[in-house]
Amino acid sequence: MIVEYLYSLAQVSAEQWNGLLVDDQPFLRHEFLSTLEDSGSLGQGTGWQPAHQILKDAQGQLLAAMPAYLKAHSYGEYVFDWAWADACRRAGIDYYPKLLAAVPFSPVQGARLLGEPAACATLLDATTGSLAGLELSSLHVNFTDPKADAVLQDRDGWLARLGCQFHWHNRGYRDYGDFLAALTSRKRKQLRKERDQVAGLGVSFEWRKGDELSEAEWDFVYACYANTYEVRGQDPYLTRAFFSLLAERVPEAIRVVLVRQGSRPVAMAFYLRDGDTLYGRYWGCLQEFDQLHFETCFYQGIEYAIAEGLQRFDAGAQGEHKLIRGFEPTLTRSWHYLVHPGLRAAVAEFLDQERAGVQAYARQAAEALPYRQEDGAASC
Predict the structure, then answer these.
(1) For residue 250, what are the CA distances in angstroms to 26, 245, 246, 378?
(2) Percentage of the chain surpassing pLDDT 90?
């Protein structure tokens, strides 16, 4: 068997790469990951250098793959290891470059090890065995699915880390009113009040597929997206070209909500979807309105998920404000292999303490959900 690093996804065909996928989640598709590269959102000068790991047999057949990147920093990951990097700096240890298996800029759970478990284990062991020789401090596998968890938990030297996100689940609701009926009276009133405030703004909401936007409308989408970073004095992660390229390659996976006041566009939300789940990714506005963010990013998404029969709505990382709107605490996992034995021991001790805190936080959050007691909700 042959293990290779790919410094561009163009080195493997979409047919081969996508042939390893077991579901229709868009983030791991060749079309999505290659768009990040082809649009200049990754690569030279970004601190994200593609270094995908693949395993082939003697005939060149692709057996396993892991989307991976050489990282010169920890931006855009949503599993925060800045403190580890700082500890290394103070100890005279180089933490960067490191190797990261993840979907860039997207804190979404999913496949990270593509292929049959035995082949994935072979690829993983070969990759960790090469880290020291390549002068890489570590390998991190973020937001894993159960399949990757099962492979990683059986390998020596790996440390598991828990996180907590908030996801909405469709419990067979007929419509948005049916969802509201599952909430306590006080929370129903709060959500209705927020939506009534937005209704009073005279704004309209239009859902579009990826191939239903003009280039001028994509310009507006990007201006809104970029503004969310610029107001914080940051550069946006994605380039303008990313949005047009992705719309060409996977238009069926894209949904955009365009918000207008009269004929004037004022805000947008960018979603992706598959057959089971809606993913809220990006939001932005060029004019501030009270409650508009909640309407565009949460309530519009819940209505859409119910209408489309989707089972889950992942509205992105963090955000306790999601909790009172029916989004349930959901534990996430990432895995970390650290070459330096002293660093590994220190991080293992830290993670033991952090894990207990995350589990306690998730339990407390579940107790604060707005659902009526008889309706209940899934526990973490």
Answers:
(1) 8, 9, 6, 32
(2) 96
Fold of 171-310: Aminopeptidase (3.40.630)
Residues spanned by CATH 3.40.630.30 within the chain? 2-162+331-367, 171-310
- Three-class SS of residue 335? strand
Closest CA to 201 of 282, 299, 287, 315: 287
Assess contact for 178 and 170: CB atoms under 8 A.
no
Beta-bridged to residue 55, according to DSSP, are 3, 64
Which residues in 152-310 belong to E strands, given as ranges?
A: 158-169, 203-209, 254-261, 264-273, 277-285
Asked if residues 276 and 311 have their Cβ atoms less than 8 Å apart, the reply is yes
Do 62 and 9 contact (CB within 8 A), yes or no? no
pLDDT of residue 128 exceeding 70, the answer is: yes
pLDDT at 378 over 80: no
- The DSSP bridge pattern shows strands 98-101 and 138-141 to be parallel
Tokens standing for residue 176: 């948005």
Whether the CA torsion 271, 336, 124, 95 is positive or negative: it is positive
Q: What is the β-pairing status of strands 328-338 and 264-273? A: unpaired
Q: Which fold has domain 2-162+331-367?
A: Aminopeptidase (3.40.630)
C-alpha dist (Å) from residue 137 to 129, 140, 184, 314, 343: 12, 10, 50, 32, 10
